[in-house]
Every structure is written in structure tokens, then in C-alpha cells.
Amino acid sequence: MSLSPRKSLLSLAATALLAMVGSAAIAQESPEGNRVSYRLEIVNLTQAQQFTPMLGVTHEPEVQLFNYGEPALPQLATLAEQGNIVPLRDLLSGLPQVHGLFNGEGLTAPGGKVTLEFAANPRRDRLSVAAMLIPTNDAFVALRGGLLPTRGKSISYYLYAHDAGSEVNDERCASIPGPSFAECGGPGGGAVAGGGEGFVHLHNGIHGVGDLDPSTRDWRAPVAIIVVTAQR
After folding, report:
1. pTM metric for this prediction
2. Which value, to the nearest 10 degrees, does the dihedral of the CA atoms of residues 67, 69, 73, 76 take?
3. pLDDT tens-digit series, residues 79-111
């Protein structure tokens, strides 16, 4: 099931009801003995962007946090604009195709690393993660439906920054939440700038159209690497 904003709430509820039967069958075919403990290491590769707490989810392959070229879910837009993972986590927790949720705490500094742990069944589960980049208007780093390694193996993913398309990239302190930034002389304001491209796409970085300094804040490559290791 794709989490698309074009799907009505009634349709979403009906799909969830049908999926409960399928999920029960999967549970019978995939007992708890098939679950594996995982360690997830996230490294911030940027020079001067911080990551808000990372939201992780294990789910069936049909679940998509977003679709390129389509509007972002309001809950994902909230994560991308404010760093608030609660609305998206609450939405995902109600889907039977979602088998696990976990998240980090605090900010991940440039060059910093965060380690998270979770359990999943590599035979049925995929992994998705998302966090906001600050200071930006609505940029988020994400993995969408990554495969999980089997016992004793690991998989690495380079992650790009995405634009939720829900807020115009004015790069102004008044529009960007977060702690003290040099260009702002203090914390960001966090007011919603409005506008936006209207669809999710790869973010094209910081260009100095507002208050942010592109010589330090910009990026032109993957912004993170994650290493997922299955415990023996």
C-alpha cells in the first residue's frame, strides 16, 4: 500500500481492513523466530547541516513514505518543516503493514553518528527512515524501503536530501526552526513560509537567496550514510 495523499481516508481504512487478514497470514508464516536484531548507524556527511531525531519504520514492501513527483503527506511535511516526527509516527502506527517503529533523540551534528537498534524479519520487512535537515525550509534525509541483511551481514546506504515541496525555499531565519544559527544571531523562527513546489523531489541545496550562507550550508552529494548490521 502506498501512503499517497491522493488516497481518501475511506479508501485507506478499507485497504487497512483487508490487509489485516493478509497480515495475520504473514504472521503465521513468519514466526517470531525469524526476527533478527539490528544495529543501525547513521553518519551525518554534511559540513554544516544537523539532523533532527531520526524516525525509523519496518514495513511490508508496498508501504511508501513518499512518492517522487507527488505531494508529500501532511505528516511527512510536518517532519520536513519542523522536525516533528510524532504525526507521521502516529499515522504509521495505525497501519497493519507496519511492523515496527523506532526513533532517535536529539540532534545529529555534522560529522556525528547515531546508533539505533530495532528488530525485524528480513524475509518480509523493508526499512525506511527520515529526518529533517536544519537549517532548511523543508529538506529531509530519507531511505525508502531498503532491504534488510540476513544474520551476520550488513548493508550500507548513501542517503540523499529530499525536498518535501510543501514550503518555499526562502532560506530565511524567520521560516526555519532550530537552535542558534550563526547567520540568524540566535535560534530560527520556524514560521511556515507557505508556497512550495507541491511535490517531493531531490533537494537542490542552499543557494544564498535568504539569510543562509551557501559556502558552509550547501551540499552537492549524499548527506548521510547508514550501515545496517544484523546481529548473529
Report:
1. 0.86
2. 80
3. 999 999 999 999 999 999 999 999 999 999 999
